[in-house]
Amino acid sequence: MGATIIEKILASHSGRTIVRPGEIIDVEIDARVARDFGGANVVNNIETFGLTLDDPGKTFFTFDCNPTGSDQKYAANQHRCRIFAREHEMKVFDINEGIGTHVLIEKGLAYPGATAVSTDSHANILGAVGAFGQGMGDRDIAAVWSHGKTWFKVPPTVKLLLNGTRPADITAKDVVLNLLHRFGANELLGCAIELYGPAIEEMKLDERITIASMATELGAIIILFPPNNEVVRYCESRAMRKIVPVPADQDAQYLREEEIDLSEFIKLISRPGKPHDTTPIPTERTWIDSAFIGSCTNGRFRDIEIAACILKGRKVAPGVVLKVVPATDRVWEQALEEGYIDDLKTAGALISNAGCAGCAAGQVGQNGPGEVTISTGNRNFPGKQGLGEVYLASPDVVAASAIAGYITGPDQVPEEAPARPVQHKNRETGRSTEKTGTEVRAEEVTGRAWVIPEDDIDTDMIFHNRHLAITNIDEMGAFAFGNLEGYEEFAEKAREGDVIFAGRNFGAGSSRQQAVDCFKALGTGAIVAESFGAIYERNAINSAFPILSGKGFTDGAIRTGDLVTVNCSEGTIYLHEQQKTLQAEPFPDVQMDIFKNNGIF
Questions:
Q1: In the β-sheet with 256-261, what is the strand arrangement from edge to edge?
Q2: I need a surface site. Which of 75, 80, 391, 593 has the fewest CB within 10 A?
Q3: Contact, 39 vs 61, CB < 8 A?
Q4: CA distance 205 to 190
Q5: Which residues are 150's β-sheet partners?
Q6: CATH superfamily, with its number, for domain 5-264
Q7: pTM for the full model?
C-alpha cells in the first residue's frame, strides 16, 4: 500500500519507511521559526526552562506582524528577540523582509519535501511548494528550537480532483472561496488535502500560495500542491541545489476522494464574521469605507499587478481608503520596477512596506468601529482586522470596489463613483475586567458546566488579537471569551474548576497560545468539544490543559450550571444532579504523559 505526500514527507523526517494516519511520531524540522508576536514568548520559554538551541542555523525570527514598529509592546518584543538572536548567532529576517512564510520560500529554506514550523497559523502555506508547514504555539516552537523535532499525529489525506476549465474571471482566491463554500470550516477538519487537475498543474506559484494559505480556514492541516516543473526550478534557484519533489504513490490510500467541476465556480465574497460564509457579489450596493490588498493570501506580485491594472487611470472613490501591502520586499521591488506602485499611488492608494498588515493588529489595514472594509485577507473573524466589518474577496473585486465605493466586480465598475448616503454606526467595544486564577492539574476535576452550543469558536473570539502582546499568563484570564457574542462576561462569572462544553472545531484560527492560557489563568477545569482546531489542540496538550473530544454534549444533555465531574484518564463526564455518566475520548498516551509532566517541558 502506497503513501500520500504528507505521509512520505513525515516518514522521511522521522526515520521511518512508512507512517499511517493516526500514528504519533517525532518529526525532524528543517526550518524553525518564531514571529515577532510570538517570539518574545518563545524566548521566555527557552530562558525560563533553561533550554538550549539544537541548531541555530535552522532557527529563525521573522518580524512580519508589526514591521513598522508602531506599537511599543511589539517594539520591545522585537528588540528582545534581536538581542537573543545575537547571543545565539541566529538569523533574523527583520522588518524589511516581509511575511515569514513567503520569506522561507524566497530564501530557499522551504522547498518540496521540507518541513517547517512557525508561530504563524498559516505556516501551512508552504504546501504551495509541496513542503510540510505547520503553525504552532510558543511552547511548541520553543521545544522544537531545543530538540530539533516535535511530536505530530499523522493526518488522513483527502484527494480533490478539480476538473473542467477554469472560467476566465475566476482567480485563485475565488477558487479557495468556492472550496470554502463547498466544505465549510470543519468538514475537512484535521485532514491534509492534495489538489490535482489540469488547472491545478498550470497554476503559478503565486496562485498556489493563495489557495494553500487558506487551508487553516478550511480546518485542514495543509493543502499540498504537487510541484510542477516551474515551481521546482524556482525552488532550486532559491535553495541553490537540486531538489526532488515528493509525489504521492499511485496506490496511496485516501480518507476521501472527490471530483469537483471547476467550470461551475463563480466569483464569491465572504460576509463579515466567517470566511466560509460565502455569497455571490451582491446586486444591491453594499457601501465600503476602506479596502485592503495584501496579507499572506493575496500580497503577491500577481495580486498587485491585477489591482494596479484595474486602478490605472482611475481614482479611489471619495471617502474610501485603499491600503496596499506587498507580501515581501522582493514583491515590493518588482511592483516598483514594473510601474505598478506608481499606478496604485496615483489612483490614491496608501502603500506600506512589506508585512502581514491588518491581519496582525499592528500595521496598515486595521479598521475602526462601524467601518466596513473589503479585504483580500484570509480571515474576517469579528475583531480580526479591527473593530469594524470585513468582507473577503479577490484582488480584482477589492480594486473594483475601491473605485466604486461599494462592493462590485471588475466588470461592473462605474465611470464615476456615486454619492453614498450618510450612515451613522456605532459599536461598543473594550473591557477592563482583571482576574487571575490557578492551574488545575488533577486528572479528575469537578465544576459547573458552561454549555456553548456553537461550532467554529475561533481564537479571536476566545482571546482577541489586540491583547497578543500580553506575555504574563496571570493577566490573560480577564480577556477569555471577551470577543464571543453572548459570553463577554465569562471571565467575570467564571469560577475555578468550571468545565466548558462546545461544538466542532473549537479554537479554530490563530496559533496564539494565549487562547489556551487565558483559561489556565482563570483556573478553568477542562474543555470538552466535539473537535478542536489542530493548532489549538496541540497548544492545550503541550500546556497540560485538559481538553477532551466527544459528541452530544451540547444537545441538551448537559445544562449550563450543572455540576459535573470530568475524568481525563477515563474520558467520563459524570452529571451529579442527573446521576448519569457520559463518555468522551480519554487522554491518549502522549497527552497523559505531557499532562502528568505538567507540560511539554
A1: 222-224, 192-196, 157-163, 256-261
A2: 593
A3: yes
A4: 24
A5: 27
A6: Aconitase, domain 3 (3.30.499.10)
A7: 0.87
